[in-house]
User: What shape does this take?
Amino acid sequence: MTSRFCMWLCFGLAMTILIGRSAAQEPNAPASDSNAVSTGATLSQWRDLTAPMRQASQAFPSAAEDCAAIYDPIAHALVLFGGKDDHNENLSEVWALDLNANVWQKLAVEGASPPASEDHVALYDPLSHRMILHGGENGPTWNQTWSFDLKARRWRDMTDSTAPRREDHTAVLDSRGKRMVIFGGRDSRRANLYEMWALNLNPQSPRFEKWKNLTAEENHPPGRVDHVAVYDRKKNRMVLYGGWDKDENECFDDTWAFMFANRPDSIGHWRKLKTRHLHPPERRHAVSVYDEARNLFIICGGYGDKGYINDVWAFDLTSNVWINITPGPRPRLDHQAIYDPRSRRMLLWGGDAKLENKFHDLWELAITPDWSLDSLRETRPPKISVK
Assistant: This one.
């Protein structure tokens, strides 16, 4: 691992704050006086939605760390499950943030619910309009698999003997294969796993809601936990970045792609991506979203060799180029993010930096509609080394 990295600062775009600082900052750094933070003259802008959210909501989630969140496109809402509160107690609550009104609501759930947990994964299943929850822990690692009907607001336990035990893993929706795909993570006995599993979400399939091992044994990335990943629909691949070798206590700064086979029942193959110019510094516990409108894999924050991080990077999935659009909100890890396709924005919730309380804030990252990689290349400055 390298402890130094070089970066193009926004590929020529003028930074309005924190010019020349490392991407890792002290967790108690003062917040900006303004509720808007520009990250470039024409690139993007962060906006703090916490104050209007609290004015509109009489209550908001107690859980702010190690939750799981999805975007519900029908209700136009951020839906959140589980995670830890300020007392580090795991919760089993479901909350929804109405993105039109910025109002939080604790959802009343009928029947049985998943146990309180952290370090689980969740995604939205568009075929059945539900949230799929997998894994996590509250002591031992679980293989729990639950579905939450977003209309009826009812949980259903889908766990069976084929479900792998996992925590600190990633999950993506393979929309072509109609399946949930998980990679990496750990269980109670093994860390730094490189296994890949898929949960069939096709109601027309005879293997509906069954798991299948898709692990490719050749040329795979090192096993890892606390990485980030997205599904690149245009190239039918999963792209992952970073993470942590828990045994060696070292973070990764590599970018890999898993190319799915044309037939869903076949095993795909891995390829390490040789990113041009630069890449984000090593980290774990970041968050990521897929911006399909601009074909970007966006990551934010986490923890690296310099401590808590607040930088933001976008990976152009067309050209395999990383772009630094730093900075973001205050440094943190174990936060959550979703992409809102209606407004073409990333929304970030919560996190922790070992302060007195966890972050219970809400931020919006808006990227300009006319953003393009070619426009940035035209004004790229000399390389700047950051120690």
Remarks:
- Helices lie at 50-56, 373-377.
- The two ends are 14 Å apart (CA to CA).
